[in-house]
Design goal:
alpha/beta, 13 helices, 2 domains, 6 strands, 11% strand, Rossmann fold
């Protein structure tokens, strides 16, 4: 009989909700290793705008999944899933992995497994893609072809249509097959905060980033030859600074633009996790509670259900 996949805590929530602070407090209870599920912290030299754990915090708790590539490179959710699965499976038995992050597609790719598509006819694929670019209502088509389609925009809908037509099975079926072969079972811990409090935290963080030298960080990266439209700079905070440096956004409006766009991003994260985790094994905690107390709550709930 195959060994049962290990249960792994997955700490998620919107940006600025306090995930890193809680993870660091968990070290007082468990010998942990953090698997960072953050699509921006993978980039070297992008530290301030990604709220990357400090060197001192990394000394306190080992973090895997940060500082992996240069800002001009791309790092997909599939690559993260493959790398993270390897990190988890090779950790010593006395180390507790904890997945921490707010990039939903990274978390989903790791937890649900890698969908390795069967061979598909390239000519038919191009015809379907061309059809999708000229068609309205792709979401309705995707929902008809795949009952598991949960939305996600035109690109996601087109992918669902493509897989259904070319393989004869819905994408959700292939994903379930991949999930059955996954490296772990997730136990989700969702940190949430009332919207006004989360917005206050976002505002404080934006001003702090600018005070700590976010503009200089971007200038340094650009001066090294990284293009303004590089993948690493295509994120809230960095996009606005690039606009500012190009002369398209005045300095006095920079902080507010970052704040507004971060709020929008946080709302998308909350919506994504709410929809994706509605039937999952989930513990939701109020992040206005002190991080040490939240860590204690997580440990107490873990002790009650880890052997279930």
């Amino acid at each position: 009989m195959a060994a049962r996949r290990p249960l792994v805590p997955v700490l998620v929530g919107a940006t600025a909700v306090g995930k890193t602070a809680v993870a660091l407090k968990l070290r007082h209870h468990w010998p942990i290793t953090v698997i960072s599920a953050d699509s921006r912290q993978v980039y070297r030299r992008l530290d301030i705008g990604t709220s990357k754990p400090t060197l001192e915090e990394q000394r306190l708790v080992r973090h895997l999944g940060i500082d992996l590539i240069d800002p001009g490179e791309r790092y997909s959710a599939g690559r993260f899933a493959s790398d993270a699965a390897a990190w988890i499976s090779t950790l010593p038995r006395d180390r507790q992995p904890i997945v921490v992050g707010g990039t939903g597609f990274y978390v989903s790719a790791l937890v649900d497994g890698l969908f390795r598509e069967p061979p598909m006819d390239s000519r038919r694929r191009e015809l379907i893609r061309d059809w999708c670019t000229r068609r309205d209502g792709l979401g309705r088509w995707a929902a008809r072809l795949d009952p598991g389609f949960a939305g996600g925009g035109r690109q996601r809908a087109a992918r669902v249509i493509e897989v259904a037509f070319l393989t004869g099975r819905p994408l959700s079926w292939w994903q379930q097959e991949a999930k059955a072969r996954g490296v772990m079972r997730p136990w989700y811990v969702v940190l949430a905060a009332p919207r006004p409090i989360l917005y206050q935290r976002i505002e404080r963080r934006a001003h702090s980033m600018l005070e700590r030298g976010l503009v200089t960080e971007v200038e340094t990266v650009l001066s090294s030859g990284v293009r303004p439209d590089a993948p690493g700079l295509d994120a809230v905070g960095y996009r606005e600074v690039v606009q500012h440096l190009k002369g398209d956004l005045p300095r006095k409006g920079l902080a507010q633009e970052i704040i507004l766009n971060t709020r929008r991003y946080a709302k998308r994260q909350e919506t994504w996790f709410r929809h994706q985790l509605k039937e999952a094994d989930t513990l939701t905690l109020n992040s206005t509670v002190a991080p040490a107390d939240l860590a204690r709550q997580i440990v107490d709930h873990w002790d009650q259900r880890k052997d279930s």
